[in-house]
Structure formats: C-alpha cells, structure tokens
Design brief:
By secondary structure, the chain is α+β, with helices and mostly antiparallel strands. Helices cover about 40% and strands about 15% of the residues.
Length: about 260
C-alpha cells in the first residue's frame, strides 16, 4: 500500500512541464492531466530536429533529470498521438509509437475493444452497439448524418475521429462562458455515520470557498455527487441547489448539510 502524495505529484508534474517548455512555447502545450500532456512540436523543427528526434530528446531529458520513464505517442494531430500513446507506445520497447494518416486502416480501425479509443467510454460503446456499430471500422464507415441523428454532435465527431481526423489547434485557447470550482475525494473506507460524511463535505466546501475568495468570485449554484463503493447494490446520486451568490464557506456548508438526504448514509 502506498499513500497518495498529491503535492509531490504536482511538483513532479511542474518539473516535467518545465522540460516540455524547452521545446515548445506555452501556446503549443496542453496539460491534459497530471500525467499526460499534448505538445505541438511542428513549430520547433528548425531548432531541435524532426518530431521523432524531439520526442527522444524529451524522453531522455526526463529520464536523466528525474529518473522517470515516459511513453510518447506521435501523430498528425492530437487524436492520433493520444491513441498511439494509449494503444501502442505503452507496450513498445522504446516507449514511442508513431501513427500517421496512412496508418488509420491498419492501426486505428483495428483498435479493440472500442473503449480503447480516445473519447469512447463504456456508455458511448453501449450507445453505438444499439445502432449496430461494434468496431472502430464500423464507426468509420457509418453515415455521418445517421450518427448525428442518433447521438447528436458527438456522433458526428466520433465519425471523424474514427477516420483519424482531428482539427484541434492547441494555440486556440477555449474560454468558457462560465467557470466552475470543484473538488472530489475518494474515501479510504465506507462511511455509515452521517456526521462523519458531513465533516468531509465541510472540509471540501471550505476548500472551494477559499478558492472562490482568492479569485474574487461568488457562486450561485452548489452541486454535490455521492458515489457508493463498487460492491454496493445502491447507485450514487447527485443534486444541486441555487443559492444567493456568496463566497462564504459557512453559508455553503449549512446549505449542503441541509440538502443532503439522510438516506445517503
């Protein structure tokens, strides 16, 4: 058993990001998660060489300086790079895999199960199965309008992804119309005492309220989701409540505590 050390993970993530920034500008770097990032190195070839050379240099720098082994996926776009990473690079001896458009029929269409494909989770797979699509090949050869009618915009996007098409430009930053603050926590044991659950929620609310005050912001909606352990016969639930705009942890705590059904514990 190893204790989680999120502070250390974040510090290491920052150190790795510093190495990335030697090879790309901040506008061409997307931190995808605490252990994954997407880099557009097409603007760095004149300085550091071709894409494979840059990938190997980054990999070696991280190994030499941090003693960490990293895997790298290379592609014509973020989608192909991500799938190359997930499907092949993690199993390749040198930890690097390269997928180009010409590899779509021989590699991307052969990905099984479909949930190995970036953007297809279990629920999406079930939806696709219901309309007669069981493989990435089936998805790539389906009628786009049919997919859009059955699944909305997501269906059409999946069609393009199944054909290796992704027009994402990392330099184009998305600015959301509204901003949310959240905090999630996985508990190390089952809680059957309602008051114990309240303590955990109060701590999480206080953290979010502190972040709101730091950003000089207020919230008018609070939302809470509760999940049960994997062996429970009960499903989790979520609920939300509109409130008068505030950044007070005391007000939010009282509202959250009152709004959580006693049956949840």
């Amino acid at each position: 058993m190893a204790e989680p050390r999120m502070k250390l993970y974040l510090q290491v993530n920052e150190m790795i990001t510093t190495i990335f920034k030697r090879y790309v500008g901040p506008e061409h770097l997307l931190i995808y998660s605490i252990d994954e990032a997407i880099l557009d190195v097409s603007h760095s070839h004149s300085l550091f060489g071709d894409t494979m050379t840059i990938a190997k240099r980054i990999q070696q720098d991280i190994l030499d300086e941090l003693r960490l082994y990293v895997t790298i996926g290379i592609g014509e776009n973020p989608l192909l790079a991500k799938v190359a990473l997930d499907v092949e690079a993690k199993h390749h001896p040198n930890g690097i895999a390269e997928w180009r458009y010409k590899d779509v029929p021989s590699k991307l269409w052969q990905v099984k199960p479909m949930t190995e494909m970036w953007g297809i989770g279990r629920r999406t797979e079930v939806q696709l199965n219901r309309i007669g699509i069981y493989t990435i090949y089936d998805l790539a050869h389906a009628e786009p309008n049919y997919l859009r009618h059955a699944m909305g915009v997501v269906g059409e996007e999946l069609f393009y992804h199944a054909n290796g098409i992704d027009y994402t430009d990392l330099a184009e930053k998305y600015v959301p119309l509204s901003k949310s603050y959240s905090k999630s926590q996985i508990l190390e044991r089952d809680y059957d005492n309602h008051k114990e659950v309240e303590i955990v929620i109060r701590e999480m609310v206080e953290d979010i309220a502190m972040r709101l005050r730091r950003e000089h912001a207020e919230t008018s909606v609070i939302h809470i989701s509760v999940g049960y352990s994997r062996y429970s016969v009960q499903k989790g639930f979520g609920t939300q409540l509109k409130i008068h705009p505030t950044d007070s942890s005391k007000k939010n705590n009282n509202l959250c505590t009152l709004y959580i059904p006693k049956a949840c514990c």
